[in-house]
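Let's sit down with a protein and look at its sequence and fold side by side. We need material for that, and I hope you will provide a protein of your own picking. Once you have written the record down, we can walk along the chain together.

***
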Amino acid sequence: MVNILQLISPSSFLGAERVVAEICNNISNNYNVSIGLLLRDDSIYDLFRNKVKKTVSVIPFKCSSKLDLTCLSYLRSYVKNNDIKIIHSHGYKSNYYSLFTSLGSKKIKIISTNHLWKDRTKSEIFYKYVDVVLLRYFDANIAVSRQISENMGHYSIDVAAVIDNGVHVDNNLFDSTLKNRIFPLNEFEFVIGSVGSLTTEKGHIDLLRAMVSIKEYGISDIKMRIIGEGPERHRLEEFIMANNLGADVSLEGYVPNVRDIYSQFDLFVLPSYNEGLPMVMLEAMASGVAVIATRVGGIPNAIHHGLDGLVVTPGDVQGIVNAIIKMRNDPKLLKKISINGYRLICKNYSGTTMSKCYEQIYQQVID
């Protein structure tokens, strides 16, 4: 049995964290996997502990700064004492600690998954270039979309594979729910949901602008629920107030068990400007919810426009408006896309499928 440490520095339980949980929950018995959390405090620990199987060890490593030598020492001891053969890191900070933990040991292999390089701010650009240097020393680098892989190639980083993200799938959902589901859920309201951090690249302001246009068309039955927290919240609240959207749009903050909420949506909209392969989109589709998403990252490679989702150009508010109204006005199309999207996830984007792909990489680096 091969011992693997999944290493991540989480600030919340978002896309990369969900990927780690799915790998741990679906990996075969040939591997013994644990999760190392680089944390300033223990607030995220319980979230991880509740999201993975009890057989998966979750270890918090107190990490008070970008370079914490005490944390590095504890990490090296854990890896040595538990005979860790592979450290699989997710993000620049965990990549740094992974690399320096492995130094001096030829037995430890290091693998990284690039979920997305962000470059909105000077600090993000700086850490991106730090990551560019670090990843050249890894035994294998994974990208979650072709776009990310091409970007890594631009910096002369070898990419071992593009592995699509995967989510938990209820294989009985069609027979138990979708087959006989009425679309929309409520004859008096058409509920749109969007899930994601409230940051500029997620494009929530475009969703609110689309809502203004929809109301100007005289459509009053559409309601919008935005799940997530972040620095854009104040700006979004001001926009909602200035445009009298308070009765139509709710900002619901962070929800720990968001998978329980998707089934309350008639439609899921993701208006992002930058993505890898968004877990929230895959989760919505796995829940049987029709999706509208922007043409960024791995989204256009996953969604076949008009068949299992609708794809629009990022920043195209009118395109978002048209797509929403199209779905609202055509229950047959809404149901078709909901069912086809669910089937697509079952076939290509399950947590089991993703984990098997990672197992192939693990085997390659230890052979």
